[in-house]
């Protein structure tokens, strides 16, 4: 591969053109393995950012893609419908918590979040109330487009760069009680106060249920989410749950909100929706919210991307939902969680490690110093694994099909790099 061209002209996520880091050339992927151009096989610990839950190159998903591309890769969704979209939406209505029954298909996670915020704004407009604020949590992550970024942690996403353009929303302190800890009622106080003072201008509360992903890999207590739902009900506010990272089994439940038995008014899904094959997302809401939105001045929901409901993506997503419905994800994520519980605590003996935590198929090692990305990435690859940390977080969300010996290889590799000084910045 022409890596020189790549380094010179191709912009990778969150990278500098002044000092671009070298990327590793992948030539194929199968099961839990990513194959590099030189033939090395890496055990994947990332599921390509939460998405490849069934592993790569899956025969069922391949077959769905092949069958659909020979029939019709795309057709506009305005005025036309098709079987892959109907099949997928049927699965989504069936699998998501009861009451969520109106599906809006979108292009990516960030767009699903944009759509959810627009739904909430149109909802209140239709009710004749002017509400334009969202309440969300510190340390959250909801995407890179402007509205999604406006409810993402202001420091992590550097709101200061976009001041004057970016809408300003209300941020409550993120929950501190871990998933496995005893619930501390003080956790909810800040959000409670902020709602008490601002509820009349708030359209909705938006947050990631149970696991705050890219904003800090924080795994919090279900009671927090229960309280948030109660407060939303008390003030008549909409609750938007962003399950783009947590959805489809990742936390050991099909949706993370099930840990708290909470049902949102609007749910965002993406990432694993197509099993990591292509980009597709969905925003799913209740009949009440949808009908209220459509009873307003516009008479409809004001959104409709060109590639909405792309049949190829829907066909693969639908096949991915069928794989989930077979139910193996339950024992698979349970087994991965057991491996994490068995192997992660030993890492605490290394003085570089501040904390280890896990839930379902998510495992996190938080270090005291930030990683040296270039050095640590190289050492992981040398050990035959693909793990991409950020800041002080070395984290894993492996494909569900990973076996105990794969998880052990990932954790052994982490155990090794945390002993190496040049993998960390001071
Ligand atoms: C990744 C992510 C998004 C954004 O999805 P993209 O497909 O990258 O636009 C939004 N919310 C959460 C919780 C995510 O993890």
Automatic annotation (TrEMBL):
One of its GO terms (biological process) is biotin biosynthetic process. Its cofactor is pyridoxal 5'-phosphate. It catalyses: (8S)-8-amino-7-oxononanoate + S-adenosyl-L-methionine = S-adenosyl-4-methylsulfanyl-2-oxobutanoate + (7R,8S)-7,8-diammoniononanoate. Its EC number is 2.6.1.62. Pyridoxal 5'-phosphate binds at residues 109-110, 242, 305-306. Pathway: Cofactor biosynthesis; biotin biosynthesis; 7,8-diaminononanoate from 8-amino-7-oxononanoate (SAM route): step 1/1. InterPro entries: Aminotrans_3, Aminotrans_3_PPA_site, BioA, PyrdxlP-dep_Trfase, PyrdxlP-dep_Trfase_major, PyrdxlP-dep_Trfase_small. The record marks 14 as: Participates in the substrate recognition with KAPA and in a stacking interaction with the adenine ring of SAM. Coiled coil: none annotated. The keyword Magnesium does not apply. Substrate binds at residues 49, 141, 271, 304, 388. It is found in: Cytoplasm. It is an enzyme of class 2 (transferase). The modification N6-(pyridoxal phosphate)lysine is found at residue 271. Keywords: Aminotransferase, Biotin biosynthesis, Cytoplasm, Pyridoxal phosphate, S-adenosyl-L-methionine, Transferase. GO terms for molecular function: adenosylmethionine-8-amino-7-oxononanoate transaminase activity; pyridoxal phosphate binding. GO terms for cellular component: cytoplasm. Homodimer. Catalyzes the transfer of the alpha-amino group from S-adenosyl-L-methionine (SAM) to 7-keto-8-aminopelargonic acid (KAPA) to form 7,8-diaminopelargonic acid (DAPA). It is the only aminotransferase known to utilize SAM as an amino donor. Belongs to the class-III pyridoxal-phosphate-dependent aminotransferase family. BioA subfamily. This is Adenosylmethionine-8-amino-7-oxononanoate aminotransferase. It comes from Vibrio paucivorans. The gene is bioA.
